Amino acid sequence: MAVTERELGKRLRTARRACGRTQKEVSRTLGISRSTVALIELGQRRVSGLELERLAALYGRSPDSLLSPARTGNEALDRLLTIAPDLAQAGAALEELKRLLRLSREVASLESTLAVGPSSATAPSYDSPLPRTEWEAIQQSLRTAEEERRRLDLGVAPIRDVAQTMSVLSVRTAAVTFPHDVSGVFLSDLSGYLVAVRRTMPLLQRRFMYAHGFAHVLFDRQDHCHVCRAEDRGSLREVRANAFAAAFLMPEAGVRGFLAHLGKGMLSRGTVDVFDVFAEGSEAGATGEPIRVERRRDGRSQRINPYDVSQLAFHFGVSRSLVIHCLRNLRLLTAMEVESLLAGAQLVEGAGLVATLQLGDGPGSGERDLLRDRILILGLEALRRRATTWDRLIELAGMVGLGVEQVRWLVHALVSQGVPRRRTGRGWSTEGVSRPHPAKASD
Asked: Residue 361 carries which DSSP code?
């Protein structure tokens, strides 16, 4: 059954409100009067094919989505069930999505009534063509992540609340009881956009999937819906969304800046040429060469350790695995170091490093005693470089309330479980440190 003029007008009004535009703005953009826009939305004036195309483009919709007859009264869900009919069997998930879309419409309506909400700060559409290769997909995602951070004035700082950042762009987020093989769903509704992720995911994984869904909003909104499944992880759309999420949550400049704060990520040897007027060779006796200044660092000082990874993960609110792979992409870790750190990450966490350093779930998870953690980390780093002794580390740990057994367990975990070591044997010094008894280590 064809959509009536009244129903079409209602859909156009809802779409306009969802993207934060006024009737006056629409009339000015399309070159028609405000009263004409009002009559169209009331269903009292017929919309031509050209006008519908221009209105749909302005609202980030397709003409088909505005004209398609509803089978269940919910067009977004109709489209979803067309591409993922198995979700019809997931009764709980389907009911939750219906409720969320209904709430999204109510929110959009109230925002419009009260003149609050996204205003002009809505999620833009990036008309990037579907990438032909994985490399092209990654390049698209990196450029877009950088542009979105600039547009949202995020700088290189961590995003404290991903869902809140997306909500001001009319992108709603929620956790839903999806089947185990579905990690998330993106829906484009007349009231805006919805990114729903599987509720049983750990917090850090949900944060990543929200950013992943944001990529689908930016790149794939013309599809109106998208289902993220593990079996599709190698598709170009999923590769692009995953790369965007990583770059959006962990900008390269922010990672390098934080590593510099930790004294890591720098070249072991640096060279600077100091230019002065005599380098021109215009004076008698001038060599014509600038003065070259070199600085060499101890190669061990740049080694990235599990506690460095844990601090980066906490700072940006991401998983330690994501941090390790990002550092590899930045050429700050070798393949062997990646393998070693990934293998040791869970063991080190189990040994109490994350809990001891209060590195829980990242931004917003609670207040840390930064001075306490800084003393412990620097003490561990000094012991690794043989710049201090075990007795001095115990003394420092005692100043911040840590016992001998806690520190001994951490040191042995870092030495034996996943910490890269040079073939020369230089590195951790455990001289005089006896291995802790497992029973005591759990105290």
From this structure: S
- The domains of the chain, with CATH numbers, are 1-69 (1.10.260.40), 72-249 (no CATH), 269-300 (no CATH), 305-441 (no CATH)
pLDDT of residue 345 exceeding 60, the answer is no
Tokens of 147: 């542009």
Pick from 216, 178, 223: nearest CA to 195: 216
User: Per-residue confidence at 208, pLDDT binned at 50, 70, 90?
Assistant: very high
Residue 265 CB-half CA count within 13 A: 19
The mean-pLDDT minimum among 220-234, 331-345, 361-375 falls in 361-375
Which helix (H) or strand (E) segment holds residue 295: the answer is strand 291-296
User: Under 8 Å CB-to-CB from 203, ≥6 apart: which residues?
Assistant: 361
Angle at which helix 236-249 crosses helix 320-329, to 10 degrees, equals: 100
Mean of pLDDT over the chain: 79
Find the mean pLDDT for residues 17-39.
87
Which of helix, strand or coil describes residue 104? helix
Please tell me the distance from the alpha carbon of residue 98 to that of residue 185, in angstroms, as a whole number. Answer: 13
CA angle 116, 24, 60 (to 5 degrees): 70
Supply angle C-alpha 209, 210, 212, rounded to 5.
Answer: 60
Is residue 61 within 8 Å of residue 17, measured between CB atoms? no
pLDDT (0 to 100) of residue 413: 66
Cα–Cα nearest to 215, from 205, 203, 228, 202: 228
Residue pair 207/184 in contact by the 8 Å Cβ criterion: no
pTM: 0.69
pLDDT number for residue 49? 87
Residue 186, SS3 per DSSP: strand
Q: Contact 261/156 with Cβ under 8 angstroms? A: no
At position 85, the amino acid (one-letter code) is P
Q: CB of 14 within 8 A of CB of 56?
A: no
Nearest C-alpha neighbor of 244 from the set 329, 129, 327, 137:
137
The proportion of the chain whose per-residue pLDDT surpasses 70, expressed as a percent, equals 77
Residue at token pair 């014509």: 288
Q: Which of 352, 343, 422, 338 is nearest to 380 (CA)?
A: 352
